[in-house]
Design brief:
Blueprint: H1 4-19, H2 27-33, H3 52-63, H4 67-85, H5 89-101, E1 105-108, H6 111-117, E2 125-130, E3 133-143, E4 151-159, E5 166-171, E6 177-179, E7 194-203, E8 208-210, H7 213-246, H8 255-278, H9 280-283, H10 285-310, H11 317-332, H12 340-351
Parallel strand pairs: 1-4, 2-4
Antiparallel strand pairs: 2-3, 3-7, 4-5, 5-8, 6-7
């Protein structure tokens, strides 16, 4: 259950968060104050305990009010997960307290890396070795949660001279790192989404998340995608709740479809949680890809059903702003990396092996 203070704030600010009229610097502290970021983090590390399935539920609960806030929450919680799974205990001890408190933003810049893992895209940052670490050059074109008051971004790095690609945490204070202006999006504008340019950035091994990206990425991918699925789950739940509220005597014909979608969503969520807790998706990523696709499609169907249940009111500005926002949110779910097209391409590639 989401903290009621956070729930009310998200409901009031949902439209502003989407169009960018709400200060994006305010989102992360609000999530932190409600302890959303601590779910699934061991108590001895400052968390509330629990597991990654609980973190998925937390993101889903946020998404039922605002996908923009849930997008930020996913980025932050994913970065926290990278630290939890990193062998670099000193880096974890240094960064985790500020990440959990919302003082520091964690940007999951591994979208490029996940596409690299599937052979879809080359790594966009390269490293030249130095006596004290590496010199980095490159650009990440779309990174979320780059909070202007302080962030650290995860990125996969290619060795310019060969060798295994590796994963670094890149702090915003380092010389040669440039954050672009916020990207102009159709929605989710208060999510601190921008590009990162690296020119002669010097980093030491102190910032190493993992020395081998090909080992680390498959290990964190279940949490990366599982947490991402929380956005679809929350959006679908909210639209289905709106459908139920609109079912009057003239629209009872939609009840069967409502119950079918509810059942589908519950079934998919159960499969997702069971797979995450059993560790099945590390060895069977295709099963997770299929769940991500199915959940995105369920969210789209739920929003479409909300339109039918709402009728003409959904198209009136005075009544339909919440629906219009969810419509835009549903358009984002299929394209967030890895997109549904990328996942289907990977599934087809695996089927042809």
């Amino acid at each position: 259950m989401l903290d009621p203070i956070l729930s009310r704030w998200l409901d009031v600010q949902a439209q502003a968060l989407d169009v960018g009229s709400c200060d994006p610097q305010e989102v992360l502290p609000r999530l932190a104050e409600a302890s959303v970021l601590r779910i699934g983090v061991p108590a001895q590390l400052g968390g509330l305990g629990g597991d990654v399935a609980g973190a998925v539920e937390a993101i889903a609960n946020v998404a039922s009010h605002s996908l923009a806030a849930a997008f930020v929450c996913w980025g932050q919680r994913s970065f926290i997960e990278y630290l939890l799974q990193s062998p670099n205990a000193q880096l974890r001890e240094r960064l985790l307290p500020d990440l959990l408190s919302g003082k520091l933003a964690g940007a999951t810049g591994l979208s490029n890396a996940m596409k690299f893992l599937s052979g879809i895209e080359a790594l966009q940052i390269s490293a030249e070795p130095t006596d004290n670490g590496w010199t980095l050059n490159g650009r990440l074109h779309w990174v979320t949660n780059l909070r202007k008051s302080g962030f650290v971004a995860a990125a996969a790095i290619e060795h310019a001279g060969g060798g295994a690609p590796f994963i670094l945490a890149i702090p915003d204070s380092v010389a040669g790192l440039q954050r672009s202006r916020d990207l102009e999006l159709l929605g989710l504008q208060s999510s601190n989404t921008a590009a990162l340019g690296l020119e002669g950035v010097e980093l030491s091994p102190d910032w190493l998340l993992h020395e081998d990206a090909r080992k680390f990425l498959p290990a964190v991918r279940p949490a990366f995608l599982g947490l991402q699925c929380g956005m679809s789950i929350g959006l679908a739940r909210r639209s289905l709740a709106e459908v139920a509220n609109h079912l009057g005597a003239t629209r009872t014909v939609l009840r069967e479809e409502l119950e079918t979608l509810r059942g589908t969503l519950d079934h998919l969520l159960t499969d997702l949680k069971n797979g995450l807790l059993a560790g099945r998706f590390a060895a069977e990523p295709a099963a997770l890809f299929k769940l991500r696709i199915a959940l995105a499609e369920t969210a789209a169907s739920a929003v479409q059903l909300e339109l039918q249940a709402s009728g003409g009111k959904a198209y009136l500005t005075a009544h339909g702003s919440g629906f219009a926002r969810r419509w835009r949110e549903s358009a984002f779910v299929p394209i967030v990396t890895p997109s549904l097209v990328q996942l289907r391409t990977e599934l087809q590639r695996q089927a042809n092996l």
